[in-house]
Amino acid sequence: MSDAGLQADAEGVVRLSGVVDFESAGALRDGFQQAAASGQGPLVLDMSQVTQANSVGLSLILRAAEHCQQQGRQLQLRAVPAGLQSIARVCGLDAWLVEAERAQAN
pTM of the predicted model, to two decimals? Predict the structure, then answer.
């Protein structure tokens, strides 16, 4: 069984934790959508507590960015795990990932 969690705070920070995989994807996607729809300004996705993630994690990030854009918000990333950065590089998305992290640092 997958162990993943998602916590959103009033400042627009969504903290993702645990294992991000096929089992946890549906609930995490729903949590992202709720967080994106319930605020204004940038939505920060903090992945510092993610212990394991596969390509589903990258897919969730892309879906979250798409949903934020639909809500008129920007997705900013924090602490993307090295494994997801490698997957993004293989998919040609590493530059986009770096920009999303850099946006959060500014």
Answer: 0.88
